[in-house]
């Protein structure tokens, strides 16, 4: 039995329960660099722990993921209970973002517009990094620490993600 989810465009409002959409929308918040650079200020709520989470720090890694295509078979979701995770594409290609409130709920599938990045809140269930074109090159800002920060859930019945 395969269940189906249709993609939807990524918007800040639709994605708000799961995290932040990082995009240069609207006028810049601040102008810097002798007035030659607009700053879209503080667009993500980065979270790398608290008094209840073992110590960690922010890190920036580079990921190179193999591109996928729609329809996409979603067999597993994961989450990072100790920190947020931001995916910042290093090319101007759309990518698929799958999120869920929990493994018991139907996932939602978003497609970026090629100029958007995302920041997943700590503990948000999500699919793996899923570029839709090569190269799948991303800067990833997440928690670096000694304690485990990954939980996976494999579905008994996969989801089929199709173009909406």
Explained architecture:
The chain has one domain: Jelly Rolls (Sandwich). Helices cover 2% and strands 48% of the residues. It is built from 1 helix and 14 strands; from the N terminus they run βαβββββββββββββ. The chain has one helix at residues 12-15, and strands at 3-9, 19-22, 30-32, 37-39, 57-65, 72-79, 85-89, 95-100, 108-111, 117-120, 125-126, 130-131, 136-144, 151-162. Strands 1, 6, 8, 9, 11, 12 and 14 form a 7-stranded mixed sheet that branches. Strands 2-10-7-13-5 form a 5-stranded antiparallel sheet, with no helix packed on it. Strands 3-4 form a two-stranded antiparallel sheet. The protein starts with a strand and ends with a strand.
């Amino acid at each position: 039995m395969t269940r189906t989810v249709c993609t939807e465009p990524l918007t800040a409002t639709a994605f708000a329960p799961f995290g932040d959409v990082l995009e240069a929308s609207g006028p810049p918040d601040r102008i810097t660099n002798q007035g030659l650079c607009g700053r879209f200020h503080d667009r993500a709520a980065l979270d790398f722990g608290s008094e209840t989470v073992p110590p960690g720090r922010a890190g920036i890694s580079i990921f190179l993921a193999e591109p996928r295509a729609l329809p996409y078979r979603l067999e597993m979701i994961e989450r990072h209970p100790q920190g947020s995770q931001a995916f910042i594409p290093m090319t101007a290609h759309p990518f698929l973002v799958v999120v869920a409130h929990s493994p018991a709920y139907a996932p939602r599938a978003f497609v970026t517009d090629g100029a958007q990045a995302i920041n997943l809140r700590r503990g948000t269930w999500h699919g793996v990094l899923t570029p839709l074109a090569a190269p799948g090159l991303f800067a990833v800002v997440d928690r670096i620490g000694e304690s485990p920060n990954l939980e996976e859930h494999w579905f008994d019945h996969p989801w089929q993600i199709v173009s909406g």
